[in-house]
Design goal:
Elements lengths: L7 E10 L2 E11 L3 E6 L6 H9 L6 E6 L2 E2 L5 H7 L1 E4 L11 H8 L7 H9 L1 H4 L11 H14 L4 E5 L7 H15 L3 E5 L3 H7 L2 E6 L2 E7 H5 L2 H7 L2
Parallel strand pairs: 3-8, 3-9, 6-7, 7-8
Antiparallel strand pairs: 1-2, 1-4, 4-5, 9-10
Helix pairs in contact: 3-6, 4-6
Length: 234
């Protein structure tokens, strides 16, 4: 992958919480379009990676370059303005607000509100719930709302932490198909426990084990690699 084909470049990233280091010398490259899966067992450091990339956590060491700019010392708000979107695993919506109000907050920086129509076409179920309080939505609808609101910010890179967690099996494939569609329009980083789904959506994958990148490669190759199973086994 040439430098001109890299939107996000992470080099030697170390991060953690207080004195507890979670990530050790993590490096990765994300192209401007397409989905990249980040896989690993619970506690491997996947969510910590996304929080550090977004700016919620300050790196201990290492460099983060996004869209040509060094951002490892920037606040999350600045990274959002550069085009970094993030849907966390929890608390991704405003539960006491309606679906409509959540979406309006998503496009607060965009004078053109036509993006809401795009999201409602993208997730038709939300169009039937506009006046409903977000906290009363089903698990799948909450995930759709969180993704839709993030898309309204028109990110260059959208990071998703467990977008199908707690979602009824009948809705998972619908969300997966929407992620495939998004990955044809922008860069996507997908942290997902449904390994087969993640590798079907993504073109490239990184496997994190105990805070280190243990394995990486084309998603199709990783999917058939016995080493992957070993690193993801409980």
């Amino acid at each position: 992958m040439s430098d001109t084909a890299i939107l996000l470049e992470v080099d030697g990233l170390c991060a953690g919480y207080g004195r507890s280091q979670v990530l050790f010398n993590v490096s990765l490259k994300i192209p401007p379009v397409g989905a990249t899966a980040v896989l690993g067992r619970n506690g491997a450091g996947k969510s910590t990676l996304l929080k550090t990339l977004f700016g919620e956590l300050t790196p201990i060491a290492g460099a983060i370059k996004f869209d040509g700019a060094a951002v490892q010392d920037e606040a999350a708000e600045r990274r959002v303005r550069r085009g970094l979107g993030y849907v966390p695993q929890e608390h991704a919506i405003f539960a006491k607000l309606t679906v409509r109000e959540n979406l309006l907050l998503g496009c607060i920086r965009q004078p053109d509100r036509s993006g809401i129509d795009y999201v409602l076409d993208f997730f038709p179920k939300l169009g039937q719930r506009l006046g409903q309080t977000a906290g009363t939505l089903s698990g799948g609808e909450r995930k759709m709302l969180a993704i839709g609101r993030a898309v309204l910010g028109r990110p260059k890179l959208l990071m998703l932490d467990e977008p199908t967690e707690g979602v009824w099996v009948g809705v998972i494939e619908e969300i997966a198909e929407r992620l495939r569609q998004l990955s044809r329009e922008m860069a996507v980083i997908l942290v997902e426990q449904h390994i087969e789904l993640a590798l079907d959506v993504a073109q490239y994958a990184y496997v994190i084990d105990r805070g280190h990148v243990a394995l990486e490669g084309a998603a199709a190759a990783v999917k058939t690699d016995a080493e992957l199973i070993r690193h993801l086994a409980p």
